[in-house]
Amino acid sequence: MSKERTRILVVDDEEIVRESLSAWLEKDGYTLATAPDGETAVERIKNERWSILLVDLKMPGIDGLQVLEEAKKLQPEAVAVIMTAYATVDTAVAAMKIGAYDYLVKPFDPEELSMMIEKIVAQQALLRENLLLRKVLKREYRFRDLLSKSPVMQKVFDLARTAARSQSTILILGESGTGKELLARAIHLESPRSDQPFVAVSCAALTETLLESELFGHERGAFTGAVNRRKGKFEMAHLGTLFLDEIGDVSPKLQLDLLRVLEERRFFRVGGSEPVSVDVRIIAATNRDLKKAVGDGSFREDLFYRLNVIPIQLPPLRERREDIPLLVDHFLEQLGAEMNKRVEEVSADAMRLLMAHDWSGNVRELRNILERAIVVASGSTIQAGDLGLAPQAAHAHGEHEGLASLDEVERHHIAVVLQETGGNISHAARVLGIDRATLYNKMKRYQLRRGGEEETEATSEADPHGG
Amino acid sequence: MTPVYLWWIGAAGADHGVLDLVRADAEAAFSLPVGHWYGRERPDDAFDPKRQQHSSTRILRWLADRRPGHTDKIVGITDADLFIPILTFVYGEAQLGGAAAVVSTARLAGNGARSGDIVLATRLAKECIHELGHTFGLIHCHQRGCVMGRSVSLAQVDAKDNTLCPDCWTKYRELQQRQEVTHE
Prior knowledge:
The complex is a heterodimer of chains A (467) and B (184). Chain A has 467 residues and is an alpha/beta fold. Chain A has three domains: 2-137, Rossmann fold (3-Layer(aba) Sandwich); 148-315, P-loop containing nucleotide triphosphate hydrolases (Rossmann fold, 3-Layer(aba) Sandwich), CATH 3.40.50; 319-446, Helicase, Ruva Protein, domain 3. Chain A is 49% helix and 14% strand. Chain A has 20 helices and 18 strands. In chain A, strands 2-1-3-4-5 form a five-stranded parallel β-sheet, sandwiched between helices. Chain A has a five-stranded parallel β-sheet with strand order 9-12-15-8-16. A two-stranded antiparallel sheet of chain A has the order 6-7. In chain A, helix 3 packs parallel to helix 4, helix 14 packs across helix 16 (362-376) and helix 18 packs across helix 19. The longest helix of chain A has 31 residues, at 110-140. Chain A is elongated. Chain B has a single domain, classed as Collagenase (Catalytic Domain). A five-stranded mixed β-sheet of chain B has the order 2-1-5-8-7, sandwiched between helices. A three-stranded mixed β-sheet of chain B has the order 3-4-6. In chain B, strand 7 and strand 8 form a beta hairpin. The longest helix of chain B has 18 residues, at 118-135.
């Protein structure tokens, strides 16, 4: 089976070498192709997948070492063997330095060639088997769209599966980018309500008035511009699940309204006088410390207890670093398909950077970084430089004199990104690897305006969510 | 009609005893009539003075051109040392799914075997069956002992049987049937 999959490209400017070598190997059942020069070889390596490259060292134009260099960039998993008419230590060293598997001196001893090819094929079969096993493991580590092998997350999945079967309200806690909405969707899909709607609302992205109308709908003429009656998210989620994201950012008035709905399972549309009854399962989420908010009076205690029936805490990525390679594999596959660009792995250096990164933006940040890396990667492997991690950090530090605190660095960096993106919040959030709601929160916290400049007293009343 | 012929194309005189054993083994291996072809011509232009060896590829072309009209396959047997440009030597070579094959005795007489003895004859028979198998479209086989196993050393030749393994036999029959259908 492995032989049929083994594709060998013979690169040599001598036709007789190409023909005799490919005819000899064809009898072993491998798929053979030839290239008469380096240029053709590079083109074929760009466009097709190869298991083994047998490359002549001396060719006019692009020589064997250059082909090897290109191959290492384009298809690092392909094993390259250099063929040479004269064995010199220099040649061998140069070839091995670039990453050749071995080199053969023409004419080859048939036993040596045969053994070498068999060994390479056996190694590649092992690699494929390893890949297959990793895929099987990935299925075991999956809970719908969430993926983790960490014991903490496995407990989260177990709790979520159990909670999904109940009707109880669930409160998902976790930093931005940890997958709160994915978990909410997964719970909905695992629940008896899975064939009913899942409706998500980000409570932080809207002003109080807009959010009220968004949640409860409005009657015709309820306010200027309300030309028609409009159903709110509660009604839209009837019989299904309503996901209230960033619940910690809801205003005191709306907290009270929500409390009433949760207690009575009915509400009034804005401007309406008839109560509307709904059967909705609530899943709320926040990245805030709600207990603390209850303590300082910014969040209603009664609402907190209504929501906190089944709390599920999602750990940040930095506390489950063992998931990084698994997630990298998953995102490369997913993003590769979405972006129609095949990138198969990250280099060892790049993986070291990823493992060491702080991941304040969690899994979403990882996904964004990989998306960017896939765009800039020139071959099928993401190199450390493609990640754009180190230069960003250096830039942030370089702008400050003396030692800055983390908050200062974050504030400065957000300001720079807002400036660079011309105040485009979505774009800036994407670059920063956080969602829009989190960016708004951070802008509020650091008193930054859309353009990255500091808020003055005159502008501090302006609504950062509007417009 | 004899579908397969063996043709001694060596410089020395033919050892008819050895050639008869090869013929009998090949007949048994493929269940086909195999005969001897006698011709005085030799592929003299196959010699490469630089390598002091004979080009098996050139011999194959020469054999295919001189194949008797009423035969499907021709196996040239020679005492010349054979090579293909990329390898230091070959025991033999065949056109995959083609008409011609060539096998050399030059390197089969090592490891204690002398010209004319049974060890050499057995090795020669195995290599002739192996190359003939290629002309029928068979590729190398990984079954232990199968004559279609790749052999690049005398130890590997000696470790093989002189017959096809069940898988290769089935494949050979399928290829034969396909060819018969094509001819019809």
